[in-house]
Amino acid sequence: MSRRRKNVNKLLPALVVALLAILVAMIAIYLVYTGKLPPKVSNKTPQTSTQTTANATSSVSTGTVAENTPTDDTDKEQKPTESTNPSDLLISWKNPSSFISKAAMGDGSFKKTFKDGNIRYWRLVSNQVTSGYNPPYNLAFGSSEMYSELEGVTTFRGNNYRTAPSWGKADVKEKKLEIVWTHDIGAVSGVGSYWPGAGWTGQPLLAHWSPDVRKIMNINNNLKDKDLVEVIYPVFDGHIYFLDMETGKESRPRINLRFTVKGTGMVDPRGYPLFYTGQGLNENDGRKGAFKYRIYDLIHQKEIFSMPGNDPVAFRPWGANDSSALLNRYTDTLLDCGENGLVYKTKLNTKFDKKAGTISINPSITKYRYKSSYSPEQGIENSPAVYRNLMYFADNGGTIQCLDINKLEPVWIFKSGDDTDSSITIEETDEGVFLYTANEVDKRGKSGARANCNVRKLNALTGELVWQKDYSCVYQNYINGGALATPVIGKNDISDIVIFNVALTGSTSDGTLVALDKKTGKEVWKRQLDAYSWSSPVDFMSKDGKTYMLLCDFKGYMHLVDPKTGEDLDKISVGGNVEASPSVYNDMAVVGTYAKKYTE
């Protein structure tokens, strides 16, 4: 008897420890589901990759050129290994407390009803609606640092969080901007208007090709052995330009797409010789054609695949595509959104043989279609952002949506109140995962009237509003007020602020640049802009650890800004309205302008 009692006493501490472990696990699961504690892929360290700027084909220097800056070995040692298995990256979710019901409809769609609205959605495989969609493989992204294997800016704002419009570190000494070169581009006339140079969002792509890939592409022979950073830039005149970033000279023949590109393309982040681009107009000087989303083989400079923009399964017939795609390199999957209101999930089935110098794809496309009770308006012009398997985008009708891109099922919706063209940005912190977004003054507008641009921070896992800051803007037909630009999410020495530029806050020509405290939404500083800006500001880091920012405006100026104060350190004229966004690689910035040039 005494021996039995003694054994129970030995087990008692173990039982207590086990019960405490179960309790801690249950609390952690609850916090994950409520969005207060996101499951971590890895321990976060400060982001060290920084940004570069570009102009309508102009190049601007922020210091001394220093290609191929190596990553410090100490940084590498501090970063734990992140899993590249999408199954490990999947985040579980449940609907927020406002969720009411989910119902299967008779046509294969489902309807989810929330507290203040509902969404009806369809999944289409081979253009056929399926009510029982089971993903053939798991799809999830890693952290923003893991997005690209290729050095440079390979998609709009550089990664799946849309927070890296620059790469490398600049050697900033005199805090001056200088035009290094310009390259002429053309214009088109279409849809009753004239489109010169490069426009919104129009961020140049910057690719530092590996030597083995560079040598199999049709790059000019004199550049085959150069440590080349290539500027790849589709613009209004219907051409895709390829330039040596150092000199501004064409690095290979341009591609004639024939029709305008307004948005930002995408270079394959695996470093594969593939380029992806949408199309902004289907008219060029009286000639009309079909809207297409295109994929190009950069070995032979030829189109190897296209998707029709005027998709027969879409609810909206307008087939333009300004959104900049993302590619999941773990699963060879392309994600893209169209102004026709569809989300495309495409398994590329890529085959790349470096030794043979060949590349091919055999795409298999799944589509997501929806209707929101907030508005019948369809169309997605901003670029999607992704956290793990959750994709975030907004539409022309005022619906912000969190979509489980793995299951193709909406998780939550949020009523933004107006068209939202600014891309949503993601920040992962110890307190949770959050989104920053702002709308424009478009659908609510009446001639001569004013309405608020709503700047918001949302909980990424639940869709709950964390804070909102409003800025009164003038309504103007065609040239919209509010936020057309994507914000700068502060990192490193400015990690406590987020910076937005808001157009037409005082009149139809001016704007406001504002830094908000990330935790509270309160203004840290605010600056009145003499000229409004649709161009997304770009943050980049100097070698001494200080963050700088570039901002371009409609009067044709590029400003070098201190993001801690909002004050100009320098400014230069790049010749014409800048709607496009710059890209930065170390000390060099490139941007396109209405002056029918791009500048570095």
Automatic annotation (TrEMBL):
Domain Pyrrolo-quinoline quinone repeat: 458-548
Keyword Membrane applies: yes
Name of this protein: Pyrrolo-quinoline quinone repeat-containing protein
Protein source organism: Ruminiclostridium papyrosolvens DSM 2782
Chain intervals for the UniProt region annotation (Disordered): 42-90
Keywords for this protein: Membrane, Transmembrane, Transmembrane helix
Transmembrane annotation, as ranges: 12-33
InterPro entries (alphabetical): PQQ_b-propeller_rpt, PQQ_rpt_dom, Quinoprotein_ADH-like_sf, WD40/YVTN_repeat-like_dom_sf
Coiled coil regions in record: none
UniProt-listed Pfam families: PQQ
Biased composition regions of type Low complexity, renumbered to the chain: 42-65
